[in-house]
Automatic annotation (TrEMBL):
Protein's organism: Anas platyrhynchos (Mallard)
Keywords tagged on the record: Cell membrane, Disulfide bond, G-protein coupled receptor, Glycoprotein, Lipoprotein, Membrane, Palmitate, Receptor, Transducer, Transmembrane, Transmembrane helix
Residue stretches spanning the membrane: 30-48, 69-91, 114-147, 168-188, 208-230
Protein name: Substance-K receptor
Organism phylogeny: Eukaryota, Metazoa, Chordata, Craniata, Vertebrata
Family of this protein: Belongs to the G-protein coupled receptor 1 family.
Length: 313
């Protein structure tokens, strides 16, 4: 996104003139949009993976081959959704000013344009938002309402686990809300343009679009900030990564927190060695405790997702 879109969009918005030719006009209406869609679907896939990991901890994790297949499907879907923007991108001259715009086929009421943008809203905004909301809601409810394993847990550890659950739920709620708020103006902009095309001819519309565009692109930028504020393990990793900075000090406790495997990782390895799967209807205290321990350790060891960014005009 930074190399192929941001600078060129900024120049275009500042001068309101396209200097970079027809081929790059089509490219910047295709690949950066594809990367943007991949970023959104990657966030959705991460939410689904977290749901399986915490709600069904005994299920085997995806193999490397299956992961590659999912990544390939995400890219293919993103390429397909972005292709119409590339196909209809054209260079037009208006009053001596060269512009790069998407020229949809002539039809009554701009049905092609409206249909496309509605499909994008459903597939890129509403569907991912619903998946993330449902997945994180179920995870949050499960963590919030789960009992503390065993009767030997002291009060201090119990309070620590409860606080970890609350922080996890808060983190997921904030992530989903940020995603929804950042992308809503972007989709509203294009839906309004589908009903009223002269909106794109307004004097400062390119600057308005740039502001909306940057807001949408910044949606995942806030995730590291959210995780740094609400997750101790991520905060320790941040301190170690930036320990060269004079104002940031990493302690031995921070190093230990990152080098020590989480309880979830340890119990996961043990369960994979077991040849007898646990009964689905198990109700013994030991099995309940094992499941709760995995859920708790997973929530405490939560890591921020790494996603790509895309952009479009």
């Amino acid at each position: 996104m930074s190399a192929f879109n941001t600078i060129f969009n900024f120049i275009y918005a500042s001068h309101n003139v396209w200097y970079f030719g027809k081929e790059f006009c089509r490219f910047q209406n295709w690949f950066p949009i594809t990367a943007m869609f991949v970023s959104i679907y990657s966030m959705t896939a991460v939410a689904a993976e977290r749901y399986v990991a915490i709600i069904h901890p005994f299920k085997p994790r995806l193999s490397a081959g299956n992961t590659r297949v999912i990544i390939g499907i995400i890219w293919l879907v993103a390429f397909g959704l972005a292709f119409p923007q590339c196909f209809y991108a054209e260079i037009l001259t208006d009053n001596g000013t060269t512009k790069c715009i998407v020229v949809w086929p002539d039809d009554v009421g701009s049905k092609h344009q409206l249909t496309y943008h509605i499909a994008v809203i459903v597939l890129i905004y509403l569907l991912p938002l619903m998946v993330m909301f449902v997945a994180y809601s179920i995870i949050g409810i499960t963590l919030w309402s789960s009992a503390v394993p065993g009767n030997h847990i002291n009060r201090a550890l119990y309070e620590h686990q409860v606080n970890a659950k609350k922080k996890f739920v808060k983190t997921m709620v904030v992530v989903v809300i940020i995603f929804a708020v950042c992308w809503l103006p972007y989709h509203i902009y294009f839906i309004l343009g589908s009903f009223k095309e002269d909106i794109y001819q307004q004097k400062y519309i390119q600057q308005v679009y740039l502001a909306i565009f940057l807001l949408a692109m910044s949606s995942t930028m806030y995730n590291p900030i959210i995780y740094c504020c609400l997750n101790q393990r991520f905060r320790s990793g941040f301190k170690i990564a930036f320990r060269w900075c004079p104002c940031i000090k990493a302690t031995e406790k921070d190093k230990l927190r990152l080098t020590s495997p989480s309880l979830y990782q340890s119990t996961r390895r043990k369960s994979q060695k077991s040849t007898i799967p646990p009964p689905a209807h198990s109700s013994s205290p030991e099995e309940r405790g094992s499941l709760e321990s995995r859920r708790q350790a997973w929530s405490e060891g939560l890591q921020a997702p790494v996603t790509g960014e895309g952009a479009q005009k």
